[in-house]
Design goal:
With 264 residues, the chain is of the alpha/beta class. The protein has a single domain, classed as 3-Layer(aba) Sandwich (Rossmann fold). The protein contains 8 helices and 12 strands. Strands 6-7-8-3-9-10 form a 6-stranded mixed beta sheet, with helices on both faces. Strands 2-1-4-5 form a 4-stranded antiparallel beta sheet, with helices on one face. A two-stranded antiparallel ribbon has the order 11-12. Helix 4 runs antiparallel to helix 5. The radius of gyration is 19 Å and the shape is globular. The model has no long low-confidence stretch (mean pLDDT 91). It binds adenosine-5'-triphosphate.
């Protein structure tokens, strides 16, 4: 099923959650998404609110409970695995199983949707892989074994693999979860640059709310009562950030455009 829309990701009346034989857990309902290409989106919300569930649903890792999702005007459920792998790449934070793959081999796996059945890499594949190493500044790690990498290095290498996959959409679930401040800012800047310079559509779930406020083009805010999305400035103007954490300890400071600790 095809739609004609300018939005690279579109969802309406979307409900997400989990079904078991016994019952259904609805994590969030009636979500509406209209995302333009080339934007860096940060998905914010407190622990357990449903960020991973939403990203897993948008990437077809799990089915939606209700509603429709369109990626590049095609209904998500009609896309084959190969079509999907050419459209979006997913970067998860879990450590790889103790893998003796080299970093080069891991990044080259990003070309899998495009290679033939023996996985032969063409000159074009090699150029795309080289460019992925250059953009992420990870060339020096090429010959290392994946198990030798620090969390920060692994995160960059996983972004390189997503770039080797060369998809218009990259989805990252908490990409900076284990990183220090320097590497967190570095990763956000890299993703921002990929969106603005290479027109990638990048969606990140994160707890780095203050960084997201500074760098994201668009925010998706999940709270128990609602889901809102929009340009960062517009959401600030509409006071949408006030309800995000429902906490007496932190509040949103509109003039600073940052969350601050509440004075007791
Ligand atoms: N496989 C699963 N089966 C059933 N319920 C699940 C499953 N995975 C997550 N949940 C539940 O869904 C809800 C949303 O979880 P989710 O992991 O999406 O939250 P999150 O916003 O990503 O949290 P965090 O910021 O802590 O990573 C939680 O109540 C969680 O317990």
């Amino acid at each position: 099923m095809k739609q004609t829309s300018k939005h690279i990701i579109k969802a309406s009346n979307l409900s997400i959650g989990y079904t078991s034989k016994k019952d259904t857990l609805t994590v969030a309902r009636d979500l509406s998404i209209n995302l333009n290409a080339g934007n860096l989106v940060c998905l914010l919300g407190k622990n357990g609110i449903g960020k991973s569930t939403l990203l897993r649903t948008l990437t077809k890792v799990q089915p939606e409970l209700n509603g429709e999702i369109f990626i590049n005007n095609s209904k998500l459920e009609t896309l084959t695995n190969n079509e999907l792998a050419k459209t979006l790449s997913l970067v998860l934070t879990e450590r790889l199983p103790d893998s003796s793959l080299t970093v080069f081999e891991l990044v080259a796996l990003g070309r899998q949707p495009f290679t033939n059945w023996i996985g032969y890499l063409t000159n074009e594949d090699m150029e795309i892989i080289q460019s992925a190493f250059e953009k992420t500044n990870t060339k020096h790690l090429m010959d290392s074994k994946c198990y030798e990498l620090s969390d920060g290095q692994l995160q960059k290498v996983l972004i390189a693999r997503a770039l080797a996959q060369n998809t218009p959409i990259i989805v990252l679930d908490e990409p900076t979860a284990h990183l220090d401040l320097h590497h967190t800012v570095n990763t956000f800047s890299l993703l921002k640059n990929l969106a603005s310079e290479f027109n990638k559509t990048i969606i990140i779930s994160t707890h780095e709310a203050n960084l997201a406020l500074q760098l994201a083009d668009e925010l998706w805010l999940m709270s128990p009562s609602k889901f809102v999305s929009g340009k960062t400035e517009e959401l600030i103007e509409k006071n949408e950030l006030d309800q995000l954490f429902d906490s007496k300890l932190i509040s949103f400071n509109k003039s600073l455009k940052q969350f601050t600790i509440t004075n007791s």
